[in-house]
Amino acid sequence: MPISLLLDQRWKSPSLQIQFISNAIASYVSGEDKTFAFAKLGRRIGLLPEISGSTEVAATLIDVWSAPEVIEILINLSETCHFRKVRIILDVPLQQCPEYLLLALS
Question: What is the rounded CA–CA span in Å between residue 47 and residue 64?
Fold first, then answer.
């Protein structure tokens, strides 16, 4: 299934899209389901050995949070009344791989 279905535009139901993105990320990072191939996104930042601690962070987590497309749609969705839901999703990269989140934002 193309990941663009999740990330290209805001759905008519932002709440449903946020939940779907959250579940897709959780399944991908846990290794349960790789249906949405975050590692194959075109604009993502690869693993950088220069970032201390990057070897301790799961590569799947870096796949997700080094992709500007993921960050862009979450920021777009946070402009709705669902800011708190988006903030909860962003807590994971803020705690585990803030450098990659910052690079994706830049």
Answer: 11
H or E segment and range at residue 70: helix 68-78
Q: For residues 32 and 101, give the distance between their C-alpha atoms in angstroms, rounded to a whole number.
A: 23
| Cβ burial 48-85 (10 Å sphere, 16+ → b, else e) | eeebeeeeebeebbbbbbbbbbbbebbeebbeeeeeeb
| Band of pLDDT at residue 39, cut at 50, 70 and 90 | confident
Alpha carbon distances (Å) from 16 to 6, 68, 94: 11, 21, 23
What's the number of domains the chain is made of? 1
Q: Quote the pLDDT of residue 106.
A: 82
Question: Domain span at residue 93?
Answer: 4-105
Higher pLDDT pick, 54 / 5: 5
**Prediction pTM value:** 0.82
